[in-house]
């Protein structure tokens, strides 16, 4: 019995896409579009830009498929393409600060508190409000910290995969994750409270 | 274990990256240190919340747009591609133009043999005229002989 194409592994779909099978690539888009969009959206916080960049990442991936040597690494490779597009977008925002939501944190290499508006310090019981605050604090993180925290906690990539994508050693990924979590905890500890787990 | 190291390891504990020995040591520290335990619980809560951050819905025609953009990109090379091609072409072309220009300059300005010979005879004639041991007649004769050769 012939196996349904949508159940095939990435390696097979990528190989078929390399041979010009658009249906196979369409299944890859279907498979990764939600997680890729999620990654881009939480990096940029602009729905339209995020969707545009996610689509552009797929287009770039398709056109560059012949350069992908190991078909099994398609997911990591796709996210790396998206990460580069996000960085390009951030660079444009940096040149045009009026376009940027978090422009005032750009270029800040130190992992210190951002001088910006912060919220009233009172514990919140509702997770939705806490989520909104967390989302904002992630947006305010320096780029290199935001990248690793989203790739790890939102996307579930391993340290090794993140290191490849971001282009740094695994030890750096560890310390960036630590710093990111420490900053988020400091900024949100008042809202979480002591008793909550 | 010091609190600073314990807090650093908490991050790895959350990601399941610690081996049994490190894990045991950290848990032992956490059970004895309320401050680090609080740090761990808050970090754990933030990790859980981060993984559940809401994301808006994608456009229903997302795939169609991707496939359309692929077709469009294949039909006409993007400006970026054209720029790269132009840049590669220029990188190849500029040294080639330089080499060709240098060769033309060298060969174009190279004096031919007869010119060299005439120059040599002129200098030799002047030398013989200035030499007090050689008479002017002899100098002229020598010039005529070398010209015939």
Give me the secondary-structure topology.
The complex is a heterodimer of chains A (about 200) and B (about 150).
Chain A: H1 10-18, H2 22-44, H3 47-63, H4 74-95, H5 127-140, H6 143-154, H7 159-166, H8 170-192
Chain B: H1 3-14, H2 20-32, H3 34-51, H4 62-75, H5 79-108, H6 113-130, H7 136-148
Folded structure, characterized:
The complex is a heterodimer of chains A (197) and B (149). Chain A is 65% helix and 0% strand. By secondary structure, chain A is mainly alpha-helical. In chain A, helix 2 (22-44) packs across helix 4 (74-95) and helix 5 crosses helix 8. The longest helix of chain A has 23 residues, at 22-44. The radius of gyration of chain A is 19 Å and the shape is elongated. Chain A starts with 9 loop residues before the first helix and ends in a 5-residue tail after the last helix. With 149 residues, chain B is an all-alpha fold. Helix content of chain B is 79%, strand content 0%. Chain B contains 7 helices and no strands. Chain B has helices at 3-14, 20-32, 34-51, 62-75, 79-108, 113-130, 136-148. The N and C termini of chain B lie far apart (103 Å). The mean pLDDT of chain B is 82. Chain A binds chain B through residues 22, 25-26, 29-30, 33-34, 37-38, 41-42, 47, 51, 54-56, 58-59, 62-63, 127, 130-131, 134-135, 138, 149-150, 152-154, 156, 159, 174-175, 177-178, 181-182, 184-185, 188-189, 192, 194, 196-197, and chain B through 7-8, 11-12, 14-15, 17, 38-39, 41-47, 49-56, 58-59, 62-63, 65-67, 69-70, 73-74.
Task: Offer a few descriptive terms.
heterodimer; A: 197 residues; mainly alpha; 8 helices; B: 149 residues; elongated
Summarize the structure.
The complex is a heterodimer of chains A (197) and B (149). Chain A is mainly α and 197 residues long.
Structural class of chain B: mainly alpha
Shape of chain A: elongated
Overall pLDDT metric of chain B: 82
Spans where pLDDT lies below 50 across 5 or more residues of chain A: 101-123
Biggest sheet features of chain A: none
The low-confidence runs of chain B, each spanning 5 or more residues with pLDDT under 50, are: none
CA(first)-CA(last) distance of chain A = 50 Å
- Total of DSSP H or I helical runs spanning 4+ residues of chain B: 7
Helix content of chain A: 55-70%
- H-E order of chain A: HHHHHHHH
The most extensive interface, with participating residues per chain, is:
A-B, 47 and 35 residues
What's the Cα radius of gyration of chain B?
44 Å
Largest sheet features of chain B: none
Q: What's the overall geometry of chain B? A: elongated
What integer is the average pLDDT of chain A? 81
Order of helices and strands of chain B: HHHHHHH
Number of strands of chain B: 0
Percentage of β-strand residues of chain B: under 5%
Strand content of chain A: under 5%
Structural class of chain A: mainly alpha
């Amino acid at each position: 019995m012939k196996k349904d194409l949508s159940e095939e592994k990435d390696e097979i779909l990528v190989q078929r896409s390399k041979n010009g099978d658009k249906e196979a690539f369409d299944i890859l888009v279907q498979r990764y579009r939600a997680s890729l969009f999620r990654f881009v959206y939480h990096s940029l916080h602009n729905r339209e830009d995020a969707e545009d960049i996610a689509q552009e990442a797929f287009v770039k991936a398709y056109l560059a498929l012949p350069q992908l040597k190991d078909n099994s690494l398609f997911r990591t490779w796709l996210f790396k393409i998206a990460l580069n597009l996000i960085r390009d977008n951030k660079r444009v925002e940096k040149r045009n600060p009026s376009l940027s939501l978090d422009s005032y944190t750009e270029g800040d290499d130190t992992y210190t508190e951002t001088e910006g508006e912060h919220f009233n310090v009172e514990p919140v019981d509702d997770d939705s409000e806490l989520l909104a605050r967390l989302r904002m604090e992630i947006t305010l993180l320096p780029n290199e910290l935001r990248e690793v925290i989203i790739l790890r906690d939102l996307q579930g990539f391993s340290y090794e995969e993140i290191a490849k994508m971001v282009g740094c050693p695994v030890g750096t990924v560890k310390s960036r994750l630590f710093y990111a979590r420490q900053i988020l905890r400091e900024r949100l500890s008042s809202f979480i409270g002591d008793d909550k787990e | 274990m010091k609190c600073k190291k314990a807090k650093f390891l908490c991050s790895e504990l959350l990601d399941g990256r610690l081996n049994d020995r490190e894990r045991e040591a950290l848990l032992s520290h956490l059970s004895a240190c309320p401050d680090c335990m609080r740090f761990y619980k808050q970090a754990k809560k933030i990790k859980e919340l981060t993984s559940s951050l809401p994301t808006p819905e994608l456009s229903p025609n997302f795939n169609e747009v991707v496939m359309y953009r692929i077709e469009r990109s294949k039909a006409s090379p993007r400006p970026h591609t054209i720029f790269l091609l132009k840049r590669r072409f220029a990188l190849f072309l500029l040294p080639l133009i330089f080499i060709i220009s240098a060769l033309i300059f060298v060969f174009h300005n190279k004096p031919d043999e007869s010119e060299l010979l005439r120059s040599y005879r002129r200098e030799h004639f002047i030398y013989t005229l200035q030499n007090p041991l050689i008479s002017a007649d002899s100098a002229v004769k020598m010039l005529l002989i070398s010209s015939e050769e």
